[in-house]
Each structure stands twice: as C-alpha cells, then as structure tokens.
C-alpha cells in the first residue's frame, strides 16, 4: 500500500464517506481511516435518528433502499398543543446509509482502512502533511480532513476545533414497536416526524417520535447541558428522562424496546471559530455543522463534505497549493451554502430552549395562525418573521435572556446587523 495519498480522511461517517465519494469520483487517490472494525461497522457510530428530507436524498443520490419510512408530515408538540405541517421526509436506516456511502466510495476508487484510529496530525514547516494512526503508523497526504465528529483528535491538536462542554447536546434513542402513533389524545403521527418541546421531558432540548412503519418508531430525546437543563433537572440522567416519558405517555402503554436498537450520541451546538488551516480541513460534526435549531445534521454534514471536496479539487488542480489561503475557499462555501445565518439560528435555538413550557403552548397557537410563508421565513432566521411570533408579554423574558446570554445575542445580531 502506498504511504502517500492526495487526501487522507479520518472518519467514515456521512461527512467523511461523502467527501471520499466525491473526491474519488474526481480520480483523486483517497484514503479513509476508520476506527471501527469493518465487520461490525457502524455498531459504535450508529448514533443518528436519521431524519432527513428529499433535498438531501436527491442532491447526493441516496437510494430508497436505505430508507426505513418515507414521511408526509412534520409535527411540533408542546405540553398541551401541536402543529402539523405537510413536509415530505425520510427516516433512514442509519447503518445501511453509512455502509452505502462506504461502498460507493470504494467503487469509485477510495481506499478504506478499518481498525485504524487517527491520533495526531503530522506537520512540516507549519503545514499538515499527514496523519499518525494506530500508535506509530503514518500516512502522508497533500490534504488531511478530520471527519471524526466531536472527538476531533486532529482538529483539536491543530487549534481548529474549540468545542465547549457547555454547548454539548447529548441524546438517547430507542427503536420501539407497539407505539400508538394515532392516539386520540395527540396528533396523528402516522407517516410523520414529531418533535416535542417540553422541559418536563427534555429540559433545554426536545424529544421525538419518528414513525418507521406500522406500530414502530424511533423514540428519543436530547438536550443541551445549559442553564435551562440545570434549572429544571432533579438529578435524573438522560436515561431517566426517557424512561419517565415512556412511562407517562399513553402512546407507549403497549410499546417495547427492540433489543440492540438503542442509540446514543452527542453534538455541539455552537458556531465554528475556524474550519481550516494549511493542508487541513474539518467537516461534519467536527466543526460542527449540525443545524442548532432542529438538530438536522445529515444534510448539513453532507453539504460540508461536498464543499470540502470542491475546495480540495481547486487546490490540487494545476499547481498544487494547499495553503490556508487557498483552502479558505472551503470556509467561504461553508458559510454560504452549509450554514448561512448560523449565528442568528444559534440565537433562536438558545431563546427557544430558554422559554418556559407555557410559552411553548402559546407558540403552537401562533404558528397555527400564521401563513406558511411567514413560518418558513422565521425558521430561516428572518427577524421580521420572528417578530410576528413575539408578544409584549415576552419582553421580560427577552430582557432576562439577553442579560444572561450576552455572547449568544452578540453573535446572533451580527448576522442581521453586521456592524454590531
């Protein structure tokens, strides 16, 4: 095996595997280092709820056979109300999805080395030139990509990643059967993806039911370990909160967990301070790229992978130049295409999870009353549209939020008032 490649990618998750897939299709010599054993892949990293939308499926050529269930609606719940919007989607079988990306990359010429844990970047004259893995093994490359997620062993050592614990969201999910997806006391969740805002179940976060066909569903919750979590928690672990929901919600009265189908994961809800340096890029949840508001990470990670592939192709075409300046094209593409308005969406996220339960009930009434165009604009970060969801009674809450979260407010306002 050669010890030099055009590109070495650490991590075979959706972002890493998609980046390898794109680059191999352009005839670059690509090596992917993956920590897990190939025979069991991705047992340890099968961590996503895997809800996505047609835009991702079509843009990246994802086949229907990795879909557990196509959905027709998105449902938002509060403690005593709900909102339903027609929105086609898909709940993926995440492990099959990951294996598909690996298989496609290999068919296009990418090499994979499983049981290979990337541990450190190799640098020369201030530029990254390779990766050290499995102790003393080394491989060289013109460009190195960290796609290992929050672990970020390469990005952290290079100072590219600055993930902070207080911005970490943790999640747990079970695949279940016997779920009553059309209970008379709740919204009809048949062929739907549901997100519930309720601090009694997920303080500082949300819970979900994603229908996967028949009486089966993915059921879980996640939350940021922030002020709202600490002010609401009574010492329960995340497992305790999930068990509390399963025991108290009649939709789960006859439900059973599917053996071996528990998934755990984490991601960071914060904008990246840096994305690249000389000879190096970070993609996917290493950066991180997850949408802070609703937690959608697959499409964001895939788009970050494609943006990285475009930047690498630019740097390796003609005269090779992998300087930070040239690779900075990736930074521009990331902010334009992957996560535009990241600051204002982060502000919306923190404000949403700061609100009390009774405000969630009012929110459901409000979004049921406004038109779809305004709702879409609010979800996209339009200040004018968001203002239509606020009331005079919210002023004390907004004042307290701004006082307690000045940095979040400042970053968010920069997206809409650049001189702030």
UniProtKB/TrEMBL annotation:
Keywords: Oxidoreductase. It comes from Halarchaeum rubridurum. The keyword Transmembrane does not apply. InterPro entries: Dggglyphlred_Halo, FAD-bd, FAD/NAD-bd_sf, Geranylgeranyl_reductase. PANTHER family: DIGERANYLGERANYLGLYCEROPHOSPHOLIPID REDUCTASE, GERANYLGERANYL DIPHOSPHATE REDUCTASE. Residues 5-321 form the FAD-binding domain. This is Digeranylgeranylglycerophospholipid reductase. GO terms for molecular function: FAD binding; oxidoreductase activity. Its EC number is 1.3.1.101, 1.3.7.11. Pfam families: FAD_binding_3.
